[in-house]
Amino acid sequence: MLNEKVIDALKDKVNVINNQDHYIYVVGPIRLPVNLEGETKIFQWYSWLRSDDVEQGELSLEELVEQVNSANLADLQQSSVLVYGDFKEADQALIRMHSICHTGDIFGSKRCDCGFQLKQSMKMITENGAGALFYLANHEGRGIGLFSKAMAYVLQENGFDTVEANEELGFADDTRQYKEAISVLKQIRRKPVILITNNPKKLTALEENGASLSGRIPLWGDVSEFNEKYLQTKVQRSGHLGEEVLV
Ligand SMILES: Nc1nc2c(ncn2[C@@H]2O[C@H](COP(=O)(O)OP(=O)(O)OP(=O)(O)O)[C@@H](O)[C@H]2O)c(=O)[nH]1
């Protein structure tokens, strides 16, 4: 039997989205003060869980709490979103669908541009006054997982480019999907959003899943000897929009 205080604290903070063949449980908003280049910015944070990771079917809050403590959630991946300003109502809101990159986002690796894009998009969102950064935790290595990405890096050190390396390991180059994140987006804002990306597949995903899009802002930067070839391959082979990085 759960403590009544626990249920009281959670009941207005956990929402369920019916996503056709599964449910998404969303917890939040939670106030998250973030250090952004020495300044404290206040975000509202939400995390979500697919019902496939706990018991199928729509669970009551009590059942959900009981399930999560035996579901080994740390072994799975949960994504989240950082919301800034009056995201629901603002006339202009920026969003980023950021794919997790353990090496770039956490360690600051310069082999890719992920860490730069993460920080820069948070800055762009706060400067705009309203927006949301979706951090997609099941997207590592464009969907192949961290261990496979490490193997892909070994192949890249042996002459394969980033696309070939995924394919040589038997993966499609890009297996990411955005469906749940877009369902969460539609739950927290119905008005149009501007997407920060160079990847046209993300624009298509938003359009195909019924999100309202009013534009795109490109995001290139932090080009160095370590990632120049990687960035060029994105444009030449993966279809990223960015003639300017082709030198
Ligand atoms: N397999 C593989 N994944 C990589 C490599 N470098 C970065 N990643 C992953 O690529 C993902 C980011 O994809 P990118 O192609 O850099 O950019 P994008 O998300 O498609 O597009 P933008 O929105 O413009 O950033 C993250 O999940 C990274 O972990 C690599 O060399 N090999």
Automatic annotation (TrEMBL):
Protein name per the record: GTP cyclohydrolase II
Pathway participation: Cofactor biosynthesis; riboflavin biosynthesis; 5-amino-6-(D-ribitylamino)uracil from GTP: step 1/4
NCBIfam families: PRK00393.1 (NF001591)
Reaction it catalyzes: GTP + 4 H2O = 2,5-diamino-6-hydroxy-4-(5-phosphoribosylamino)-pyrimidine + formate + 2 phosphate + 3 H(+)
One MF annotation (Gene Ontology) recorded for this entry: metal ion binding
UniProt keyword list: GTP-binding, Hydrolase, Metal-binding, Nucleotide-binding, Riboflavin biosynthesis, Zinc
Enzyme Commission number(s): 3.5.4.25
Domain GTP cyclohydrolase II: 76-218
Cofactor requirements of the protein: Zn(2+)
GO biological process, one term: riboflavin biosynthetic process
Top-rank lineage group of the source organism: Bacteria
Cellular component terms (Gene Ontology): cytosol
